[in-house]
Amino acid sequence: MDEEYDVIVLGTGLTECVLSGLLSVEGKKVLHIDRQEYYGGESASLNLQQLYEKFKPGRTPDESLGRSRDWCVDLIPKFLMANGELTNILTHTNVTRYVEFKQIEGSFVYRWDKINKIPANESEAIYSSLIGLFEKRRLRNFLQFVANYREDEVSTHKGFNLDVDTVDDVFNKYGLEEGSKNFIGHAMALYDNDDYLTQPARETIERVMLYAQSVARFGKSPYLYPLYGLGELPQGFSRLSAIYGGTFMLGTPIKEVLYEEDGSFKGVKIEIDGEEHIAKSKQVIADPTYFPDLVKGTSKLIRTISLINNDQLPFRHNENSGQIIITGKETKRTNDIYMALIGAEHKACPPGKSIAICSTIIEGDKPPHIQLETAFGLIKVKSFDHTFMGLSDLFEPLDDGSKNGIFISKSYDATSHFESVTEDIKDIYFRVTGKPLKLTKLEEGEFNATA
Amino acid sequence: MSATQGPRLAQFKLVLLGESAVGKSSIVHRFVKDSFDDFRESTIGAAFLTQTLKINDNTSVKFEIWDTAGQERYKSLAPMYYRNANAAVVVYDITQSASLERAKVWIKELQRQPNYQDVTIALVGNKLDLEEERQVSEEDAKLLAEQEGLLFFEVSAKSGDGVLNIFQEIAKKLPVEEQLNKIHQKSASKVNLQRPSTNNQTTCCA
Ligand SMILES: Nc1nc2c(ncn2[C@@H]2O[C@H](COP(=O)(O)OP(=O)(O)OP(=O)(O)O)[C@@H](O)[C@H]2O)c(=O)[nH]1
Ligand SMILES: [Mg+2]
């Protein structure tokens, strides 16, 4: 009865499912378990019923909200960068067959009590009302430098050494004002606080490049979002894994984790149809909830989900979706507030409605909803009848798993996109397999059974 | 009525359901490649195939076929599998009466899906070439199909008998015209990630 696997995966969040898929494709024998009945863990999309059960147990959804199943509400607000690494993984593995994407219509930053479109390239910057006339020239020069930067052509480096010179050094050389610095760092490089300014400039330059290239890919904004919610992503990758032989068991609690004498991972005890089974493996990949003793909390996040009517959308040009960044500077905080808005266009809710998800790192001891006041103001949320609030601890593993074979993923952080998630995926992949992730396009033919 | 009507193609998603080894993948392969393999392994790799069927002079139906991939074995099929399915083929093996019981469970599962009313479902008894080992009578299965309002066929993926007919009959039931009209209205388009980026989409003012 007992069986041996190359890797056991616990939890069906996005990180776990992508890894499960990639490892199965490589021919590894994967057993994938989730204690819950549904795919996705923290990265699932919930219907109304599930949303109320989670956040307002005992209460039934308002009739005005329509049918439960017409809602796919994410628990974490994240978008895909059109040119980002997750998009890359999706196209290489052909998981794009199972998930459809649409653009997010706009990317905005809150300033001077209103929301402003973020200029995405040098020509947009010229027309932006965000920036003063003289500043425009300087900003344009900076963005041109970024656009032309080529790692292997010293002439494009403009005398900078990106591994030594700090972001501030580069900004100052271009004579950029506080306002421009703020939006380059926060709205384009997508840092949620100002620590990056004193760091070597390379990462920031790369992030601005990613932003600009992502906008250039489809226009409007750098962001993509799957129809029916983010919960489609783990499902798509789970199918990839299954197609390549991965075994999936949902609704299966772990009765016991088994260890070798030296403390390394040995397997798990589970129950199938009332019968106990032991699944063995030397390696396990798990989300933090499966090994609470082996992780530490890093910061606390507040996330709120508001179900709103479309007339509460804060956009000026009838956009139906978007991201708004309220920088720390605007609210006298250290960390930015992110707001993600999606609606019926992305099949996330019934027509006429939208979903607004706000998130930020908790600072000080003001009550959480006060910390998000500015965001609620933008979407005219006055009572919290249709707002769901959750505090989440962000966890990361205490060690890298090299000794005990236990590889734990990080919680989904405060950033507004999946770049840090894919970094974690690649990092775990490296630790599990001992080699860096190299994506090769799966060919059409490889999908056909060996006949 | 337009005079210059080119060939029209309506695309539909079709899912296969049924117990392991009843011949789901074999039916798909017979339909898509007109081939059969006596030693087909449990589905690995081939779980997404397409096949186009001409339904009249200028109209074709393209089936996007989703074959199960083992996730159903421990009741772990992802909801995305059913999502937006236009047709479902529920397969049993006429030589295994237990497989018809399992088919009934799948039919119930389908009936729980939100878009059930819009899904064309076919109940298919496979391995008709093994008539001498038959355990499920044609009458019993047919009666079940009638009660549940499903199309019904008996086929053999091995000989090919009746396989094409399943898909032709399903195609007749699909809302082809509706689908074609919808395509014309579609405005905010989905993005195609597989296509390499071109910059013909105006970002703005450049
Ligand atoms: N005699 C006979 N054998 C068949 C027929 N169709 C399929 N088989 C055999 O039945 C076995 C299972 O067929 P598959 O097509 O792999 O079955 P499946 O339903 O896809 O199985 P899973 O992928 O495990 O769910 C194979 O050995 C096939 O060769 C048929 O019409 N007649
Ligand atoms: Mg099969």
Blueprint (SSEs and pairs):
The complex is a heterodimer of chains A (451) and B (206).
Chain A (H helix, E strand, L loop, with lengths): L2 E2 L2 E4 L3 H12 L4 E4 L11 E2 L1 H8 L17 E2 L5 E2 L3 H8 L8 E3 L3 E5 L2 E4 L4 H6 L5 H16 L18 H7 L4 H11 L13 H17 L4 E4 L5 H12 L3 E3 L4 E6 L5 E8 L2 E6 L3 E3 L8 E15 L12 E5 L1 H4 L5 E7 L9 E9 L6 H4 L1 H6 L8 E11 L8 E3 L10 H15 L18
Parallel strand pairs in A: 1-14, 2-3, 2-15, 3-11, 8-17, 15-21
Antiparallel strand pairs in A: 4-5, 6-10, 7-10, 8-9, 12-13, 13-14, 16-19, 16-20, 17-18, 18-19
Chain B lengths: L7 E11 L5 H10 L14 E9 L2 E8 L20 E7 L3 H15 L8 E7 L11 H11 L2 E4 L8 H11 L2 H10 L21
Parallel strand pairs in B: 1-3, 1-4, 4-5, 5-6
Antiparallel strand pairs in B: 2-3
Describe the structure.
The complex is a heterodimer of chains A (451) and B (206). Chain A is built from 13 helices and 21 strands. With 451 residues, chain A is of the alpha/beta class. Chain A folds into 3 domains: 2-50 and 231-294 and 397-433, FAD/NAD(P)-binding domain, CATH 3.50.50; 57-106 and 296-394, Guanine Nucleotide Dissociation Inhibitor, domain 2, CATH 3.30.519.10; 118-218, Guanine Nucleotide Dissociation Inhibitor, domain 1 (Orthogonal Bundle). In chain A, the strands form 5 sheets. Chain A has a 7-stranded mixed beta sheet with strand order 9-8-17-18-19-16-20. In chain A, strands 11-3-2-15-21 form a 5-stranded parallel beta sheet, with helices on one face. Chain A has a 4-stranded mixed beta sheet with strand order 1-14-13-12, with no helix packed on it. The two termini of chain A are 30 Å apart. Residues 445-451 of chain A have low confidence and may be disordered. With 206 residues, chain B is an alpha/beta fold. Chain B has a single domain, classed as 3-Layer(aba) Sandwich (Rossmann fold). Chain B has helices at 24-33, 97-111, 138-148, 163-173, 176-185, and strands at 8-18, 48-56, 59-66, 87-93, 120-126, 151-154. Chain B is globular and about 50 Å long. Classes of the chains: A alpha/beta (451), B alpha/beta (206). Chain A: This is Rab GDP dissociation inhibitor. Chain A: One of its GO terms (molecular function) is Rab GDP-dissociation inhibitor activity. Chain A: Pfam families: GDI (PF00996). Chain A: One of its GO terms (cellular component) is cytoplasm.
